[in-house]
Amino acid sequence: MQMRFDGRLGFPGGFVNFSDGSLEDGLNRELSEELGEAAAAFRVERADYRNSYASSGQHVVAHFYAKRLTLEQLTAVERGAPLAQDHGLEVLGLVRVPLYTLQDGVGGLPAFLENTFIGTAREQLLEALQDLGLLESGSVLRP
Question: Boundaries of each Nudix hydrolase domain copy (predicted)?
Fold first, then answer.
């Protein structure tokens, strides 16, 4: 995930331009702008689509995709992100989501979920972790 300019956690993305051939082309362009050159090592495809959300009153539909990366791809993205076009403007930094819960039952992912997220990013995170087999359904309480 990323720390956004407004202090909330969210995912890379943005608006699709008319010059973008598809939603996926627009998303991959945005990934390059927000994550840097390392994002060119992979491509988000239609098969990575998870869900869509229409916001009321803003005339915006947000489409959510989740892509499994290798450790090498993730490390390359993390190293290159500070050099990305939008770093320091839209994006203040990347954040790794802790995929564990400490013995106290609070530390790790449960504590991470107490942060402030943009829109439906918190719910999208939980759904993606379950879809990708990284989190058991119902293992984290939802308020």
Answer: 1-127
β-strands 2-4, 61-65: how paired? unpaired
Mean pLDDT, consecutive 10-residue segments, the chain of 143 residues? Answer: 97 92 95 95 95 84 93 96 95 95 92 95 94 78 51
With residue 30 as reference, give the H or E element that holds it: helix 23-35
> Helix (H, G, I), strand (E, B), or coil: what is residue 92?
strand
**Homologous superfamily of 2-131 in CATH?**
Nucleoside Triphosphate Pyrophosphohydrolase (3.90.79.10)
Closest CA to 67 of 99, 95, 9, 27: 27
Whole-prediction pTM: 0.87
Identify residue 136 by its one-letter amino acid code: E
Which residues make beta-bridge pairs with 32?
none
